[in-house]
Amino acid sequence: MTIHTIPLSSILLCDSNPRTGMDPSGIESLAASILADGLLQNLVVAPIQGDKTRYWLVSGERRYRALLWLQERGQIPADYAVPAEIRSDLSDADILRIATVENVQRENLSPLDEAAAFARLLGQGAALEEVSAQTGLSRTTIKRRLALDALCDEVKQALASGAITLAAAEAFTLGTHEAQRDILQRLAAGWHYDADELRDMLLDQRPCVAFARFPLEQYQGTFTTDLFADDATTYFDDVEQFFSLQRQAVAALAEQLAETADWVEVSEDYHIPRWQYRPREDGEAAGVIINLSPSGEVEVLEGLVKRTLNHGTAKATADNPIAPKPKPAYSTPMCRYVAHHKSMAVQRLLLENPRVAKEVAVLGMLRASDAYRCPISLDAHDSLKAFACEEEPPVSYQAVENLARRFSDTLGLQDPQNRSAWALLLRALNSGGSS
Questions:
Q1: What is the pTM of this model?
Q2: 167: buried, middle or exposed (CB in 10 Å: 19+, 13-18, 0-12)?
């Protein structure tokens, strides 16, 4: 790395820096430090294409602004010699990446600045794992910031001003823009909700008549309404029937829009990841996103162009990280119980075919030996241990136990503790034949 000195006046700010706001007092303090001790760390710049005398600032914007502050007050000249590393090999994506990484690592960006920076980086094709490794932030943290990018402008302003907390802003991402504005108005009117309460409110929303994209006469269920009985406060009682009709209406809308749009995508998420798209420019092919949110509201965005995303990143950021995960159809103990039955059935089939059983046993022993590089100690499958405690174990367990009993009797194995035959046999094998 070679450091050059270039005039301060030859350095220009570009729009790649993710930081949208800086503390003036911090800039003044840094300027005082530079005036007293000089610039202790160089800037990084890139030549402006077609201009041999000027450079884009890549990293070091706080230092650069402090120098401008001194220059504006006549404390340093406009041609002040600035130490800088000149990087001629950087693409626009590289400049954005370096600026983002430096800001995240050196001085905390606001959550919204981080959200915008990550959206731009990933929107240019960067991989989520790469951004995580370079910034030192977890994949989950980056995904939580990206979710903030989908907030309505009013909630973003409330977060930026400190009117709501980051946790509250993350809860807001579970609602549509209309729902976000409604709750924000309540907060401004003096209501108080913590982040968990906001999350529960948005998750518990029922579909209202105002959301319906289908003729109401198609709905055969009942409604619940409040005193005012308007569309926004009249709710469908049969939520399943509502979503069935709403999906049919969305499918019809998608078919209609496909007649004029180049592509149409339908999703059912808490919000549309706007950062994955950009508005089309003149002459560009464009498409439409239709999103049916879990609250039942339909949002349509037209005239969009897909950004070129890393495939893995697009898949990994598809969900809202604070949204509840779908519950499994069966409990963990039930799944384990079913798995034990399946394992016992396989063991029984293997023992009924001795040759295949020997082959499987040898492969298992070779694998264990290679993995641990130590003498092999055989252990029983969890299903054997589970069913040994039952008064009426399954037929497959009884078959395995009966065969183990025949072997132990043939070998003359005795067990004063009256354990299961397979346990007695396993103990003898692991002890080298002695019991």
A1: 0.54
A2: middle
Domain membership flag for residue 342:
yes
C-alpha–C-alpha distance, residues 290 and 279, integer Å: 15
Name the residue type at position 84. Answer: A
pLDDT in tens, 303-354: 999 988 887 787 778 777 777 766 666 667 777 878 888 888 888 888 788 7
Sign, CA torsion 128/134/138/144: negative
User: What is the reported pLDDT for 230?
Assistant: 74
Indicate the residue among 57, 88, 109 that finishes a domain: 109
User: Are the beta carbons of 150 and 205 closer than 8 angstroms?
Assistant: no
Provide the number of structural domains found in the chain.
2
CA distances from 217 to 20, 110, 221 (A): 50, 49, 10
Q: Is residue 62 situated within a structural domain? A: yes
Please report, for the domain that includes residue 102, its CATH number: 3.90.1530.10
- For the chain, the maximum distance between any two Cα atoms, rounded to a whole number of angstroms, is 102
Mean pLDDT of all residues in 241-250:
96
Residues 138-193 pLDDT 10s: 788 888 888 898 899 999 999 988 899 988 999 998 888 888 998 999 888 888 88
- Two tokens, residue 206: 């029922």
Structure tokens at 127: 């991989």
Instruction: Tell me, yes or no, whether 361 lies in a domain.
Output: yes
Rounded to whole angstroms, how far apart are CA atoms 384 and 373?
27
Question: For residue 341, what are the contacts with CB-CB under 8 A and spacing of at least 6?
Answer: 383, 394, 396
Q: What number is the average pLDDT over the span 44-57? A: 84
Could you tell me which residues come within 8 angstroms of residue 73 by beta carbon, excluding any fewer than 6 positions away? none
Tell me the mean pLDDT in the region 196-214.
87
Structure tokens at 188: 């401004």
**Each residue's pLDDT tens digit, 391-423:** 788 888 888 888 888 877 887 777 766 778 778
Closest CA to 66 of 110, 6, 24: 24
For 321, the 3-state DSSP assignment is coil
By the 8 A CB rule, do 27 and 62 touch?
yes
**Residue 154 domain-assigned (yes or no):** no
Domain range for 414: 335-430
Angle CA 381–386–392, to nearest 5: 125
